[in-house]
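Bumping my old thread because nobody answered last time. Still need a sequence for this structure:
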């Protein structure tokens, strides 16, 4: 393993540790419709690893993050594993977006949409398994919470499942920009700062500068 690879692994691991720290600190807030779902800041360092160090570093960071959460996270191993799958599916969509040739910002937007769609699809399937076969009590709690939030009575089991899946999908859709946008803003601030030498080594920065050189000059 060369020096650059060692640097990437070390940096990705550090960002994963930061993600785990953010996960255990009381910085999350509940999703009002289904309170056992919580928005948190822990995914931001993982997506930062993706943008700064590249796709493989993002994947590595999500893996280390998952391993740490298995030790310190709540509802282990189910909770950390669900989080890992959510983050990994989003990263897969981001990677697919950057595989489409275009300006990095456009690729990021496409990747964000793809990541959102993949995350919703994968997590919907996993949540169905959890709610039906592993923890059916969560479905009763979710249905009661949704009923209170909407001011409607949900007595039918099928309606309860559908409403829970819809609002859980909405939660995952909202969590994607909550995690990706701050990471992107950090990278943008580095690009605009005076930290030129170090910033030029970052993966997203290299893509952006290569695209700017290839774009035609305006008269």
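Sorry it took so long. Here it is:
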């Amino acid at each position: 393993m060369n020096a650059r690879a060692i640097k990437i692994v070390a940096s990705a691991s550090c960002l994963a540790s930061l993600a785990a720290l953010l996960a255990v600190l009381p910085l999350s807030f509940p999703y009002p419709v289904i309170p056992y779902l919580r928005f948190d800041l822990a995914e931001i360092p993982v997506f930062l690893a993706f943008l700064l160090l590249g796709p493989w570093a993002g994947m590595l960071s999500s893996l280390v993050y998952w391993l740490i959460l298995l030790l310190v996270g709540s509802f282990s191993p189910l909770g950390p594993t669900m989080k890992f799958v959510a983050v990994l599916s989003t990263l897969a969509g981001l990677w697919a977006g950057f595989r489409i040739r275009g300006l990095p910002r456009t690729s990021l937007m496409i990747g964000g949409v793809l990541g959102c769609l993949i995350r919703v699809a994968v997590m919907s399937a996993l949540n169905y398994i959890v709610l039906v076969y592993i923890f059916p009590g969560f479905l009763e709690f979710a249905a009661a919470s949704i009923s209170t939030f909407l001011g409607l009575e949900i007595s039918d089991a099928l309606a309860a499942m559908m409403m829970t899946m819809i609002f859980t999908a909405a939660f995952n859709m909202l969590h994607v920009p909550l995690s990706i946008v701050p990471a992107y803003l950090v990278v943008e601030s580095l690009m605009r700062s005076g930290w030129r030498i170090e910033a030029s080594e970052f993966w997203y920065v290299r893509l952006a500068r290569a695209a700017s050189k290839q774009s035609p000059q305006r008269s």
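The chain has one domain: 3-214. Let me know if any region looks off to you.
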